[in-house]
Amino acid sequence: MSRRRRVYEGKAKVLYEGPEPGTLIQHFKDDATANNNQKHATIEGKGVLNNRISEFIFTKLNDIGVPTHFIRSINMREQLIREVEIIPCEVVVRNVAAGSLTKRLGIEEGTQLPRSIIEFYYKNDELGDPMVSEEHITAFGWATPQEIDDMMALALRVNDFMAGLFLGIGIRLVDFKVEFGRLYEGDMVRVVLADEISPDSCRLWDIRTNDKLDKDRFRQDMGGLIEAYQEVARRLGILFENEPKRRGPTLVK
Question: What is the pTM of this model?
Answer without folding.
Answer: 0.92
